Amino acid sequence: MTSRPDLIRRLALLADDLAPLTPPASWIDQLRGLCDTARLVLGAAAVSVARTVDADTRPDSPQPDSPEPESADPRGGLVYVAASGEGADQITGTRLASGSGLAGFVVASGQSLAIDRVQDDVRFARDIAEATGYVPTSLLIVPINSTNGDVLGLLSVLDRGTMTAQSSFDALEVASAFAAQAAFVLPRIDLLVRLGPVLVQAIADAVAHDDHDLAAALGRIATRLGPPDDELAATAALLAELRSRPTETRRRVERVLSELLALTEPRRRR
Amino acid sequence: MNELVPAWSESFHRDDLGAAPRLALPRSISRRWAFGDRTGRGVRVAVIDSGVDANHPAVGHVDEAVVIDMAPDTEAGVRFTVGPHEDLSGHGTACAGIIRSLAPGVELISLRVLGVNLKGSAFAFAHALEWCLDHGVHIANLSLSTSNEDYYETFHDLVDRASFARMMLVSAMNNERKTTIPSEFAGVFSVACGPGTNREKFWCNPAAPAEWGAAGVDVEVPWSGGGTVTATGNSFAAPVIAGHLARLLGAHPGLTPWQARTVLAELAENRATHPPR
Hints:
The structure holds two protein chains of two kinds.
Chain A lengths: L3 H15 L6 H18 L3 E8 L23 E9 L2 H4 L3 E2 L4 H9 L3 E4 L5 H11 L5 E8 L5 E8 L12 H38 L5 H10 L6 H13 L4 H17 L7
Helix pairs in contact in A: 1-6, 2-6, 6-7
Chain B lengths: L9 H4 L17 H5 L8 E6 L14 E7 L7 E5 L8 H12 L4 E6 L8 H14 L4 E4 L9 H13 L3 E5 L16 E6 L7 E3 L7 E4 L3 E4 L5 E5 L1 H18 L5 H11 L10
Parallel strand pairs in B: 1-4, 1-5, 2-4, 5-6, 6-7, 7-9
Antiparallel strand pairs in B: 2-3, 8-9, 10-11
Helix pairs in contact in B: 3-6, 4-5
């Protein structure tokens, strides 16, 4: 018979595993709408958005009797979060253990890639076509970048067509513009996907320790979440302290911080 | 199907590119003088990329291969693994094949920095340039760049050191219009796509930063698996310039990057018919 702590641990692992499949619906709807629009504008057979996920950092190592999840990838990978067109249902939720292939190249290099006659490429078939069940002729993949240059994910365009005559943009420019839109949404999805399992694990942890103290349980989970951002944590602690100060002091600190931030803007290159 | 034109390549596709900067030389520089036997023999060319498929017929062979990987448990934070490796995407094989097609006699070195880890490629990339400086590389093809501002100083220093060591860095401009490192640095040969698919042609943009233009739109390139694909990107234009530089250095060992620039500008498709006196 499974013990209660083990049951709870399994529940926490399950919550972690389900996280990529149960992201916040409204944000996913936005991305799906973006894929629909991009597909129409580009006259493409399909458009999809995938987000990068970190290396597997689950808080508890599975015990010998619990199976290693297939998705575990020490190098991180990609999860397709929204799609439109051919193979959309099949690819949504698919995880690529990616450090290789065309998608892996775009994520690692931050460079877009446009390949025609992709079926000639054996790597392509393995990476994407098998997952979707649709084999395109051309593929355009553009990175989705955060403002500081990190690759948050990628936008893939399968079999782009001829755009409307009045459009003077080319497909790469259009796809990049849609990727820029997706860049606003992906960090929010990422945050909520991470937050959900942490909360479930904290509840499981509190119950398992019979102390019913959620704050303490959150603290314990936090220590197992990998290296924290010390600088950010220190800043957050200062800001928390600031809450107890008079309004005038808070406004002055805000002004000083704003000016400091403006001074430390990255220099203009050109 | 739409023709794709990567960012920074537009200048080469318009009529107002302007003439390449020229010297009023008493005799013009010929391709025969500049490129000699067109083999690039004796020139060490590094491809810093996703690895190179040494068995691909368009590549022939790879003379040295090193995987540069993150190793957080070590003091340097990086691990060098010498020995044959595969190309994880096909991109590096494309670049190597293009260089070989122009300069078949070069010593080809594959430095794999992409694909081993989704993050940290900029760190491995910087270490690859260090490796090139330490191992007598003459030309490094960089069909990759980083937009991570934290690496600005690191790459600025590396590009300066490369320039002083007469190592030529050929850097593809990003396909999207965004600032990337080191492709917009003055010390690199920055490359975007010119018109057509003929690798013998190249253009010199009088208005930097996309300094050189070469074939890169709808070009047939070697890819992993032994075949070819039709691809578009500034990534595929950079190795064309690297190939021409290899020819030049093969014929004239020891040229400095600024001498090489002058020669290439004299041979550019958009050179002025009557140079200024």
